[in-house]
UniProtKB/TrEMBL annotation:
It comes from Coemansia asiatica. GO terms for biological process: L-proline biosynthetic process. The keyword Ligase does not apply. Keywords: NADP, Oxidoreductase. It holds the Pfam family P5CR_dimer. The lineage of its organism: Eukaryota, Fungi, Fungi incertae sedis, Zoopagomycota, Kickxellomycotina. Residues 182-284 form the Pyrroline-5-carboxylate reductase dimerisation domain. This is Pyrroline-5-carboxylate reductase. Belongs to the pyrroline-5-carboxylate reductase family. One of its GO terms (molecular function) is pyrroline-5-carboxylate reductase activity.
Length: 293
């Protein structure tokens, strides 16, 4: 990335937009180089007053910056952060602006393929220049500064634009990776995009059992959550693989061994594998459905 900060426009001002936005501003990104489009007046006012940025009710206006109080610099990056059900209409609505300004378009919309974004952008101008596209799959721990993410870039994305994409994503993800095929985005969704819910399910069961064993609910919840956080930190900082770490805390015929053997007998590992695969399959199905919009 060049020394000048990129001008970043968010289409959609929801939670994930705010997570990226707050991270950018905390690390010194100038308020003159970020704009947001948000349809709801109350949310507009919240973002405007909280972050001292230009917030617009119209998508095209956010892209041009006309009528704002900050800057009308053309966008270097446009982040699509809207619901999948409306993304087709949104992209068709801003297609002319995207073709004119040629920014890097980053989508955090789950289940929508790059070919469909390209089709919507060129619906009225099939011969228009290709707009570079990146699919970004973040996850909700980004909201507390502990996100993980995967990205895929189409062939029109330059090395400089990849650096711009990393500049955006590093503000919400402590771990982020490029995948070499679009199918890899579905795998990222299955592992980390939907992954927090898997751990919430486990923590919910541990909390419930702790209460049944006589612990106060808050004590059981915090013990389980800190244990999960500590285990994750060990995985990220140890030279041992996950299987070895598990074996190191599982003494033969000990308490942990009893728990692990019972979980294996109840086919817990197989259930996790099946669940992750079901998530990926649903991602693929959604991609087909949204491609018809």
């Amino acid at each position: 990335m060049t020394s000048a900060p990129p001008c970043i426009v968010f289409i959609g001002g929801g939670n994930m937009c705010e997570a990226i936005l707050s991270g950018l501003l905390k690390t010194g990104h100038p308020t003159t180089h970020v704009r947001v489009s948000e349809p709801f007046a109350q949310r507009q006012e919240y973002l405007r007053t909280t972050y001292s940025i230009d917030v617009f009710g119209l998508n095209d206006q956010a892209i041009t910056g006309e009528g704002g109080s900050k800057s009308t610099a053309p966008p270097d990056v446009v982040v699509l952060a809207v619901k999948p059900q409306v993304v087709g209409d949104v992209v068709r609505g801003i297609a002319a602006s995207l073709l004119q300004t040629q920014p890097l378009v980053m989508s955090i919309v789950a289940g929508v393929a790059i070919k469909d974004f390209s089709r919507w952008i060129h619906h009225n101008d099939p011969s228009g220049a290709p707009v570079p596209l990146v699919r970004l799959m973040p996850n909700t721990p980004a909201l507390v500064g502990e996100g993980a993410a995967g990205m895929y870039a189409d062939d029109d994305v330059t090395a400089e634009q990849k650096k711009q994409a990393e500049y955006v994503v590093c503000n919400i993800a402590k771990e982020y990776f490029w995948v070499d095929s679009e199918a890899g985005v579905d795998a990222v969704c299955a592992i980390s995009g939907s992954g927090p819910a898997y751990f919430f399910l486990i923590l919910e069961a541990m909390e419930k059992t702790g209460v049944e064993m006589g612990l106060a609910r808050d004590v059981a919840r915090r013990l389980a959550a800190q244990t999960a956080l500590g285990a994750a930190r060990m995985v990220l900082t140890s030279n041992d693989d996950v299987a070895t770490l598990r074996q190191k805390v599982t003494s033969p015929n000990g308490t942990t061994h009893a728990a692990i053997q019972k979980m294996i007998a109840e086919r817990v590992p197989e259930g996790v594998v099946s669940g992750v695969k079901a998530c990926r399959e649903r991602c693929m199905t959604l991609s087909e459905e949204f491609g018809k919009l």
